[in-house]
From TrEMBL:
Protein name: Amino acid transporter transmembrane domain-containing protein
InterPro entries for this protein: AA_transpt_TM
GO molecular function: L-amino acid transmembrane transporter activity
Region (Disordered): 1-20
Membrane topology field: Multi-pass membrane protein
Annotated keywords: Amino-acid transport, Membrane, Transmembrane, Transmembrane helix, Transport
Main location: membrane
Superkingdom in the source lineage: Eukaryota
Record localization: Membrane
Domain Amino acid transporter transmembrane: 33-432
Transmembrane region(s): 42-70, 112-132, 164-181, 193-214, 230-249, 270-289, 318-335, 356-375, 381-404, 416-441
Length: 450
């Protein structure tokens, strides 16, 4: 018996579009996980350096400057998110990375420049994290004063309480497992814990400051800056660097169930982080006044002269040390991706090549470890990054994308804001570099870092 052929439906089927309610990838990330990951990217070492910046600026201008830096950061991120949406071939999706977005407007040279800036900035941030960890665990010196680290204070000077050994131990047994993960969303739980630990630091600092205010032993900070202080001009790069997170926007957005919610996530994260920054800066300068160090965590090496003061000092330092350990892999993720993009632009994705993935990871981790042992101060690192790569990533590139406007989505107000951001970035970087040169050649006394 003959078998009749089946009738084939030749009608065109409607094209399936990806909408903002449709997950773009399997196992897409939640909004809460994205908030924690982005907040972790922002609240890293900045929380340690901003009290010194507020001390230099004066309390009122310093807190206002933190709020202004947050607002400008929100505007600059909105520029790249909007441009990324238009550039993506998928509705409601995003550009693959910050570098890809810049490359669409400025070609391969722009793409390479973006990657290079992210590499320098992120590597510098990782070095700062490890410097702080070394300060917390093994101690640091400011001039002729030595500030004892937690482990050094518990067990005394030993070969295994030295800075190099403790950083090596942390690298092998904490960082190595975390930086071996291949997806940002895999770090959502450690990011949530790191944000919680940052709040522990802020809460204890606030409690101690309030107690000291009531008993009259708190240090009253300057409300306005001393205009003769050259360090005043180096605070703007520190403020900018503290909020730079642009390189993490696209990796986080690409894993969201609903990429259309990215700006809401950004606003929540910036509000959260700005609150932490302002509270830490306020209570930090109330506690330590003119003695506030570049790394305020180093100030907690003494008994705070309140009940359980020594115990609270250790809790503050240990909690924030663990926080930085959990921040480290988030920043490392973008560093590794951009290094791979620079060196192997046409290779298969890094996560699919195990040998390349682990070789790149090991090389970058070794660089961060060496830098942490030879860079003298987090303020020096913050100034360098803030005056160079951070202003490019945070202000100049978003503004340039808006002014270039290859998709015609920029409004007149966007262009005005873009020119202002470029002017602010260039002028503050120029002045900061000049002030550093002045300080290096005699404007700063020996050992005066704070």
């Amino acid at each position: 018996m003959a078998v009749l052929p089946q009738k084939i439906d030749m009608k065109p089927r409607p094209r399936q579009h990806t909408t903002s309610r449709t997950p773009l990838i399997a196992g897409a990330a939640s909004q809460s996980g994205a908030v924690f990951n982005l907040s972790t990217t922002i609240v890293g070492a900045g929380i340690m350096a901003l009290p010194a910046a507020v001390k230099a600026l004066g309390l009122i201008p310093g807190l206002l400057a933190i709020a202004a830096a947050a607002k400008l950061t929100e505007s600059s991120i909105e520029m790249i998110v909007r441009s990324g949406r238009v550039s993506s071939p998928k509705p409601a999706a995003a550009a693959a990375s910050y570098a890809d977005l810049v490359g669409e407007s400025f070609g391969s040279a722009g793409k390479a420049l973006t990657r290079a800036c992210v590499v320098i900035n992120n590597l510098g941030m990782l070095v700062v994290y490890m410097i702080i960890l070394g300060d917390v665990l093994s101690g640091t010196s400011s001039g002729t004063t030595h500030h004892t680290g937690v482990i050094e204070g518990w067990y005394g000077p030993q070969w295994w309480t030295s800075r190099t050994f403790l950083l090596l131990f942390t690298t092998l047994f904490v960082f190595a497992p975390l930086i071996s993960l291949k997806r940002v969303d895999s770090l959502r739980y450690t990011s949530a814990l790191s944000v919680a630990l940052a709040f522990v630091f802020v809460a204890i600092t606030a409690i101690v400051a309030v107690v000291k205010l009531f008993d009259g032993t708190a240090s009253m900070p300057r409300l306005l800056p001393e205009m003769v202080d050259w360090k005043l001009f180096t605070t703007v790069p520190v403020l900018i660097t503290s909020f730079v997170c642009h390189y993490s926007i696209h990796p986080i957005e690409s894993e969201l169930r609903d990429p259309g919610q990215m700006m809401r996530i950004v606003r929540v994260s910036l509000t959260l982080c700005t609150s932490v920054y302002m509270a830490t800066s306020l209570f930090g300068v109330l506690l330590f006044g003119e003695g506030t160090l570049d790394d305020v965590l180093a100030n907690f090496d003494v008994d705070l002269d309140i009940p359980l003061g020594a115990f609270l000092s250790d809790v503050v330092r240990v909690s924030y040390a663990v926080h930085l350990m959990l921040v480290f892999p988030i920043v490392f993720y973008s560093l590794r991706q951009n290094v791979d993009g620079l060196l192997f632009p046409r290779a298969v994705p890094l996560a699919q090549d195990k040998q390349r993935f682990f070789a790149t990871t090991a090389f970058l981790m070794a660089l961060a470890f060496l830098g942490a042992n030879y860079v003298p101060s987090i303020w020096d690192a913050f100034q360098f990054m803030g005056a160079t790569t951070s202003v490019v990533i945070g202000f100049i590139l978003p503004a340039a994308l808006t002014l270039r406007d290859v998709h015609g989505v920029a409004a007149k107000n966007d262009r005005i804001l873009s020119w202002f951001m470029i002017f602010l970035a260039v002028s503050t970087s120029f002045v900061a570099i000049l002030s550093d040169v002045y300080a290096f050649f005699g404007g700063r006394g020996d050992g005066d870092r704070a």
